[in-house]
């Protein structure tokens, strides 16, 4: 603490003394001018050498040709060729039967009650259960699960994926991530850095050797899930696993596997379905339509119906961990509001 100074003289005398001291103070010395600066200006930097644009283009073209050659060699294995032929036949047959529709199915009437039932089917059930160390396909009731942190999608390709396919897949995923953000209100972004939602696009040989990469990419991933992805049956064109910490209903990471041999429409369909399911719409059901979450492959891409399911899932009136009994009346109210705005 600093105390104020006090004078011991009577007040008029104190002022007189101060005046006297001021009068007796010597004149301040004149300021000495600073010495002149004796330094040379820095020399001009030489101009950077001109960039040989033609050489740069040749280098990039050569790099692309080398990458394409590596991809062709990796994709030329008997297993990968057989899978590519099989999937091309599947897509052709589905389209011939009127499947893999690319429209929104707007002729299918939707009611709030039907949308609520569909949400319960897709968001409040798991598609698989674990039995005896294996994943068994059986719809089972589950709590509501979704992400709270931003979803950062990281894309990884096997050597078998050519530069052209990589560019198309990257553009498709970036655009679809923007759509998921717009629809759900939850941030989803394609990142070139570390992510929490890994999308792997691999051919047969690369997928069969996936175990060490998955263990390094996602420490703690269950061995059964690694085996399920490694041994994916031919009729399963893609798959996704989403994980939370412990028993939390909040997702913290996910991994999706897309077959590199998929033809264009099935490939895009897989990207739509697995990324949307990884957001928390975990189940498929034959009763849900018009929807990509239906194993009869009627619709190839995310429909308006599916967008409504995402809007409901990320509505703030719902919370992770809710059971069907807790969520259903709230979902019904949200569904009524959403459909009323579309009239």
UniProtKB/TrEMBL annotation:
Annotated Pro residues bias: 26-36
PROSITE patterns named in the record: PROKAR_LIPOPROTEIN
Biased amino acid composition, Low complexity: 64-80
Keywords: Signal
Annotated segments matching region Disordered: 25-80
Signal peptide: 1-30
Protein name in the entry: DUF2927 domain-containing protein
Lineage: Bacteria, Pseudomonadati, Pseudomonadota, Alphaproteobacteria, Rhodobacterales
């Amino acid at each position: 603490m600093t105390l104020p100074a006090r004078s011991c003289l009577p007040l008029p005398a104190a002022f007189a003394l101060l005046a006297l001291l001021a009068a007796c103070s010597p004149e301040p010395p004149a300021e000495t001018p600073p010495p002149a600066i004796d330094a040379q200006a820095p020399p001009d930097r030489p101009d950077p050498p001109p960039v040989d644009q033609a050489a740069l283009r040749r280098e990039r073209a050569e790099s692309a040709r080398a990458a394409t050659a590596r991809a062709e060699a990796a994709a030329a294995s008997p297993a990968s060729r057989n899978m590519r032929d099989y999937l091309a036949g599947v897509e052709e047959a589905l389209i011939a039967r009127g499947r893999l529709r690319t429209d929104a199915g707007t002729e299918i009437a939707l009611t709030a009650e039907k949308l609520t039932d569909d949400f319960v089917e897709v968001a409040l059930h798991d598609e698989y259960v674990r039995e005896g160390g294996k994943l068994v396909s059986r719809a089972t009731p589950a709590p509501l699960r979704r992400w709270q942190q931003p979803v950062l999608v990281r894309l990884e390709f096997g050597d078998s994926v050519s530069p052209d396919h990589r560019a198309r897949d990257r553009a498709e995923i970036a655009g679809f991530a923007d759509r998921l953000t717009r629809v759900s209100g939850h941030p989803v972004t394609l990142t070139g850095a570390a992510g929490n939602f890994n999308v792997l696009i691999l051919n047969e040989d690369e997928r069969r050797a996936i175990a060490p990469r998955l263990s390094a990419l996602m420490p703690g991933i269950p061995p059964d899930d690694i085996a399920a992805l490694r041994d994916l049956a031919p009729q399963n064109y893609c798959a996704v696993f989403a994980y939370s910490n412990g028993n939390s209903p909040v997702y913290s990471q996910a991994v999706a596997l897309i077959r590199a041999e998929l033809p264009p429409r099935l490939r895009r369909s897989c990207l739509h379905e697995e990324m949307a399911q990884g957001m928390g719409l975990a189940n498929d059901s034959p009763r849900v339509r018009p929807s990509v979450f239906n194993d009869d492959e009627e619709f190839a891409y995310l429909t308006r119906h599916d967008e409504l399911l995402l809007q409901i899932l990320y509505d703030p009136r719902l919370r992770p961990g809710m059971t069907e009994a807790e969520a259903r009346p709230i979902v019904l109210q949200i569904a009524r509001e959403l459909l009323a705005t579309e009239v």
